[in-house]
Design brief:
With 377 residues, the protein is of the alpha+beta class. It has 17 helices and 10 strands. The protein has helices at residues 3-16, 31-43, 54-58, 105-123, 140-146, 193-197, 215-218, 227-230, 242-245, 265-268, 272-276, 280-287, 297-310, 317-326, 330-343, 348-358, 362-376, and strands at 21-26, 69-76, 95-96, 129-132, 151-152, 158-159, 167-174, 203-205, 208-209, 236-238. It has a 4-stranded antiparallel β-sheet, sandwiched between helices. It has a two-stranded parallel ribbon with strand order 3-10. Strand 8 and strand 9 form a beta hairpin. 42% of the residues are buried.
């Protein structure tokens, strides 16, 4: 079959199955990316969630020996929700970032890529393909940039003219020599809003992120949240959207296009107090279909405790005291102790002093001490 004709058919088919953008690039090595990744490792800026082998991340032929080209896809997700609930005293709420609204995007994009695989297999039996979304070896953003999906913004996101940076990305390496698309010109210009407003200064410079300082990364860790971030995360219980919401290129991009990503307001802006006592079974039942559940309930509960402290939510004291006194997990007990001190209710000091006498875990004792110091200050 004529490759150009097949490429046009594939573009049409992708639109039919709900792919918002599709682009093509060669399977040549990602030379510039390789240098950037080496620099990231030297500076210890990588998150640890990504593939650590730089060669695998930048050499497509190591992943598919016969690789000739890479297909990049993008699917837009919403930036706003309808009927968003408001928190108030006694009913404080947390927030999941927009990339976790609706059905887990890994599931949705893998389904789209599977359909594309089946389409190509039907047209060219025996075709070689390898697809990936987010957790694969290749850099989704580097592939999307080179395939003309959008440009790489200063906020380290791919920005598209049509949907802003609110797009999920996936790619497929194939042995079909598709015609590569042109890269898009950088349209950020002199704007540096994302750099200036990042809560922790994680965007070191245009296009370079120190993942360890990123609020989105910190909300996904499982240990004690470092002190420097506790004042920064506010009521975020998973992810952070600040560098996207301030971007002028995202202005007016609602992206209400896919039913799968339609947010359930009570789940993406959940009440905080119920999260403190939620069981594993309940958590999986309520939140398991969302990408923000991938680390389990523990980080979400920790972040909910910190969010209640952020609001100085006195009404949450009974739940926090119970966590401090009865929870088996030191990180949860300790974070509750800190939050009790931060809220500083009338009974806070006595509660912490009593816990101090019974607690055996050194890390929890340190958090109790921090809580007592907050009361004194």
């Amino acid at each position: 079959m004529n490759v150009l004709a097949l490429q046009k058919q594939l573009v049409d088919y992708a639109a039919q199955i709900g792919v918002d953008k599709i682009g093509f690039t060669t399977a040549a090595p990602f030379v510039d990316l390789k240098q950037k990744l080496k620099r990231q490792q030297q500076l210890n800026y990588q998150s640890g969630f990504e593939e650590s082998n730089i060669e695998l991340r930048t050499e497509p032929t190591l992943l598919l020996e016969e690789a000739e080209s890479i297909i990049a896809i993008a699917i837009a997700y919403p930036s706003r929700m309808e009927a968003a609930p408001s928190g108030k005293k006694g009913e404080r709420r947390g927030i999941f970032c927009r990339a976790s609204w609706g059905t887990d995007y890994h599931t949705v994009l893998r389904e789209k890529l599977s359909l594309i695989e089946a389409f190509l297999e039907e047209k060219l039996p025996g075709v070689k393909m390898r697809s990936m979304v987010d957790t694969g070896e290749l850099s989704d953003r580097a592939v999307a940039e080179r395939a003309g999906i959008g440009w790489s913004g200063k906020n380290c996101s791919i920005i598209t003219p049509e949907f802003g940076s609110y797009v999920y990305l996936g790619e497929m390496i194939t042995n079909i020599p598709f015609e590569p698309d042109e890269q898009m010109e950088d349209q950020c210009g002199e704007c540096r809003l994302c750099i200036d407003v990042c809560p922790t200064g994680a965007i070191v410079q245009a296009g370079q992120l120190n993942s360890h300082k990123c609020v989105a990364f910190q909300t996904q860790t499982k240990g004690f949240l470092p002190d420097e971030f506790r004042e920064k995360i506010g009521n975020r219980i998973y992810g952070c959207d600040t560098c996207q919401t301030v971007c002028p290129k995202n202005k007016g991009k609602k992206n209400w296009l896919h039913e799968a990503f339609k947010p359930e307001p009570e789940l993406v802006k959940p009440l905080l107090k119920p999260l403190l006592q939620i069981s594993n079974k309940e958590f999986k039942s309520q939140f398991g279909y969302m990408s923000g559940s991938w680390r389990g309930k523990k980080p979400i509960q920790r972040n909910a405790i910190i969010a209640l402290a952020h609001f100085k939510e006195v009404d949450a004291m009974p739940e926090l005291v119970e966590l401090l006194q009865k929870d088996e997990r030191p990180m949860i007990r300790g974070t509750a102790a800190w939050a009790i001190g931060k809220i500083g209710a009338e009974e806070a000091e006595n509660v912490l002093l009593q816990a101090q006498q019974k607690e055996q875990d050194e890390d929890v004792l340190k958090e109790i001490e921090k809580g007592l110091m907050l009361i004194e200050s």
